[in-house]
């Protein structure tokens, strides 16, 4: 997906902490447009299609995975409160389709970078 965005002339930061909380990092960030893009893993973030929950050590994994999802929602709300646009995609989604959606989001933001 990053390759597709770069090929379109879009420039971004990778593994960057948008907003005030520097411990929560986005996968791709367009700082001028204030767009934070997350590519969530199906296991770690509870994909409704592909999520699995381990049977071994379930008392550890269950709360950990639920907390990951809660943290995602908290991060989204925090960034939205700070004026950011948050886009989340699943790791299994088509990279070209995701790049198309990201590009459309960028085009809808006034003052956002244009294709080079």
Give the name of the CATH superfamily. VSR Endonuclease
Q: Can you write the helix and strand succession as a string? A: HEEEHHEH
Low-confidence stretches: none
Distance between the termini: 18 Å
Q: Under CATH, the topology is which?
A: Endonuclease, Chain A
Integer count of domains = 1
SS field, number of helical segments: 4
Give the overall pLDDT as a whole number.
92
Largest sheet: 4 strands, mixed
Strand content: 15-25%
For the record, what CATH class applies? Alpha Beta
Provide the CATH architecture: 3-Layer(aba) Sandwich
Q: By helix and strand content, what is the structural category?
A: alpha+beta
Give Rg in angstroms.
Answer: 15 Å
Dominant shape? globular
- The total strand number stands at 4
Q: How do the strands line up in the largest sheet?
A: 1-2-3-4
Short key terms for the protein model shown above:
4-stranded mixed beta sheet, Endonuclease, Chain A, 116 residues, alpha+beta
Kindly describe this structure.
There is one protein chain. The chain is α+β, with helices and mostly antiparallel strands and 116 residues long. The protein has a single domain (2-108), classed as 3-Layer(aba) Sandwich (Endonuclease, Chain A), CATH 3.40.960. The chain is 41% helix and 18% strand. It has helices spanning 2-7, 42-45, 58-81, 95-108, and strands at 13-16, 26-30, 35-40, 85-90. The two termini are 18 Å apart.
């Amino acid at each position: 997906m990053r390759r597709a965005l770069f090929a379109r002339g879009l420039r971004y930061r990778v593994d960057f902490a948008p907003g005030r909380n520097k411990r929560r990092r986005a996968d791709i960030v367009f700082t001028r447009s204030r767009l934070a893009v997350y590519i969530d893993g199906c296991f770690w973030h509870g994909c409704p299609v592909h999520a699995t929950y381990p049977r071994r050590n379930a008392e550890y994994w269950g709360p950990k995975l639920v907390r990951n999802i809660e943290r995602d929602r908290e991060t989204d709300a925090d960034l939205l409160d700070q004026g950011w646009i948050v886009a989340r995609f699943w790791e299994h989604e088509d990279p070209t389709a995701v790049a198309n959606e990201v590009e459309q989001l960028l085009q809808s933001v006034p003052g956002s970078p244009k294709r080079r």
